[in-house]
Amino acid sequence: MKTLIIGMGNIGILHGWAFSGAGIDVTHKVRRGKKGIYRGGVALDILDMRKGYPKTRQALYVPKITDEVNPSDGYDLVMVPTKHYQAAEAVKEIAGSVPEGRFLMFCANWEGPGEIDALLPRSRYIWGYAAVNGGIVDDVLYANFRDDYRIGMIDGCSREFLDAVIDLFSKAGLRADFKENMIEWLWVHHGTNGALIGSSLYAGGLAEFAENLENGSMVGLFVNASKEALKVLEARGVDVRRYPDTNIFLNLTPEEIAKIYIDMFESPAGRRTIAAGHYRGNIAEMKRYYTDVLQKGIELGIDMPYMLSMRGKIEKIN
Length: 318
Known about the structure:
Blueprint: E1 3-6, H1 10-21, E2 26-29, E3 42-48, E4 56-61, E5 64-66, E6 77-80, H2 87-94, E7 102-106, H3 114-117, E8 125-130, E9 133-137, E10 140-145, E11 148-152, H4 159-171, E12 175-179, H5 182-203, H6 206-215, H7 219-235, H8 244-251, H9 254-266, H10 268-276, H11 278-281, H12 283-299, H13 305-309, H14 311-315
Parallel strand pairs: 1-2, 1-6, 2-5, 3-10, 6-7, 7-8, 11-12
Antiparallel strand pairs: 3-4, 8-11, 9-10
Helix pairs in contact: 5-6, 5-7, 5-12, 6-9, 7-12, 9-10
């Protein structure tokens, strides 16, 4: 499956590296004039959780790059690992140049698939979401490369296409974490992330947030903000009790919830996330998760004193 990945963001780089290593024909589409930036490749430092792969390694990924796409290029798959609020524009820009290609939307979603429906029939796209994460420090992309990714059905999408994408990922040692209702799961992930990210930004960063969980000073704010996010999801028609990510906030004590997150941050992957995660290089995107959830709650008339209490400080962060 000849694959075009939109951009050279961290998620696109990591999957391009993994796909290329599995013998898949991968090209990255960048903006005009940007091809030369990546001529020397991207240095990677990987904590690899896939079975049968070295646990830790350093690598140099030298991708194929293009700044122009033509119908004759014959791409079968276009992967869109963009920021969620840039996804529709990315599809709009490229769709006419890949008339036979189908799209894997590989990004967050908070407003439903309507923007993409306006551009593509559902037979031409499916939705997934990465489990890998990482960030660039001193020109090196430090990453946690998990062995899974999320993918699922949307009414009207092609099961044949879905199976072909699952097969593609399996060639790179990645297994599908299948979601029965992909868009709803994305909303759940976005909602819980909105509260987590807001609390972390309010604390001054992930390291400070983890420290404040340890000493107990932010447990109440974080847990209550998360419960407010669940109310937003419920107001949108989501049965939050169906999801493990939400059930911890419904069934556990604040101290038990804090322990789960403390243990996560103290793991090897968690320490790497603190040192080189999205919080360092993508503040605007991180703020957007928080503001998306807060604004939707206000729109739906949800009482959100804990989420609102963080707004003034978060809005001042650049």
